[in-house]
TrEMBL record:
It catalyses: The enzyme specifically hydrolyzes (1->4)-beta-D-galactosidic linkages in type I arabinogalactans. Its EC number is 3.2.1.89. It comes from Ohtaekwangia kribbensis. InterPro entries: GH, Glyco_hydro_53. Belongs to the glycosyl hydrolase 53 family. This is Arabinogalactan endo-beta-1,4-galactanase. It is an enzyme of class 3 (hydrolase). Keywords: Glycosidase, Hydrolase.
């Protein structure tokens, strides 16, 4: 997912002050907690059976390793993000990899991914790798080729996907960090490595002998090194009928369907999530993971970078509070888990660690956080009750 910058309005700046806002938002009524937790008890029981209870923790490298940031358990004891996740029964950590990121995004470099993968495996968790095949964010609106690949022909790109993916897999293998899942591309609704492999779910153009060969090149490279690793195709949203129909039509190889589902952009119905994932996994005999999701616990903020998610995320019955965030996660997990024949296998929360790591002075998301209100940590970097959803 790519983070889009939201400009704060003058009213927003006048109404909220960081200090008082933190005090008001984090405080919650025990009655609300008890009500929501009671309503979600059965959901949580079902969610506990999910194969993959995951978090994308790619920012942890920048915040902890590069900046020396400190996170805390709910009781105030300091701990690393991976330790806190592990203690909450998280069993999968997703990491993103860019081909040649700039100096401000070294958390997406191969060196950082390898270092973090070793930490994940050492904690007894599994790790999932997302190959963006770009030097920057890849999403439905941006799939920019790596600068070093920009002049390659179609066949040269297909060969490069193979050689690059094979090299990455071999480096992971050499250090004993086998990824349990590898994504070929990120949110590839309209293909990747534009314009060469740009496609539309509503047209056959550029699928046959093009996008098909590109995806299969990555798939085969993963399997050549790690035969048992699952390969995922990732779609932003849940209305992916035409996309996966064409994947089937053109013989594209993959093992798992991955979906982004953010209520602010992709709909607010758990029933729709169930129906769509049930239909798609049934039609194509696949399993599915909601591989990106998030829900705000406040509409407040610390820095001035502008929050991406706000009141537009609100689902009736799930208030924008820590308790509401936990309830949202529990219900989503229960929804995915309830897909018949164990075809719903996981939920991954996107960047619960992307706190406002530069304090209140940051004015853009490149040096601050546009996600601070949707993390699973409060504004003091203390774990929120949303972590309990993974237990």
């Amino acid at each position: 997912m790519k983070k889009y910058i939201v400009t704060m309005s003058a009213v927003w700046l006048l109404v909220f002050f960081v200090g008082c806002q933190q005090e008001v938002v984090i405080e919650e009524k025990s009655a609300e907690n008890e009500t929501i937790q009671s309503e979600q008890a059965s959901a949580n029981a079902r969610a506990s059976g999910l194969t993959y209870r995951g978090m994308d923790l790619s920012f942890a490298y920048k915040i902890e390793t590069q900046r020396g940031g400190k996170f805390y358990y709910a009781n105030g004891t300091a701990g690393t993000v991976f330790d806190i996740a592990k203690s909450a029964n998280v069993n999968l950590v997703r990491l993103r990899l860019w081909v040649n990121p700039d100096a401000n995004h070294k958390e997406c470099s191969l060196a950082a991914v390898k270092e973090q993968a070793k930490k994940v495996v050492a904690k007894g968790m599994q790790f999932m790798l997302t190959l963006h095949y770009s030097d920057t964010w890849a999403d439905p609106g941006t799939q920019t080729k790596p600068a070093a690949w920009s002049s390659l022909t179609q066949q040269q790109l297909i060969d490069k996907i193979w050689s690059y993916t094979t090299d990455v897999m071999n480096q992971l293998k050499s250090q004993g960090t086998t990824p349990i899942i590898v994504q070929i591309g990120n949110e590839i609704n309209a293909g990747f490595l534009w314009p060469t492999f740009k496609v539309s779910a509503d047209s056959d153009t550029n699928w046959d002998n093009s996008f098909e060969y590109a995806i299969n090149s990555g798939y085969n490279a993963v399997k050549a090194v790690f035969p048992n690793t699952k390969v995922m195709l990732h779609y932003a949203g849940i209305w992916a009928d035409n996309f996966f129909w064409r994947c089937s039509k053109f013989g594209i190889q993959y093992d798992i369907m991955g979906f982004s589902w953010y209520p602010q952009w992709h709909g607010k119905s758990f029933t729709d999530v169930y129906n769509q994932l049930n239909n798609l996994t049934s039609w194509y005999s696949k399993t599915a993971i909601v591989v990106e999701t998030a829900y705000p616990w406040t509409t407040g903020y610390v820095d001035q970078a502008g929050n991406v998610l706000g009141s537009g995320s609100l689902i009736s019955g799930y208030p924008l509070t820590p308790a509401g965030q936990q309830a949202f996660l529990e219900q989503l997990m229960a929804t995915v888990k309830s897909i018949p024949n164990n075809r719903g296998v996981g939920v991954v929360y996107w960047e619960p660690d992307w706190t406002a790591y530069n304090g209140s002075s940051a004015t853009d998301w490149e040096n601050g956080s546009s996600w601070e209100n949707a993390t699973l940590f409060d504004f003091s970097w203390k774990a929120l009750q949303g972590f309990s959803a993974f237990n």
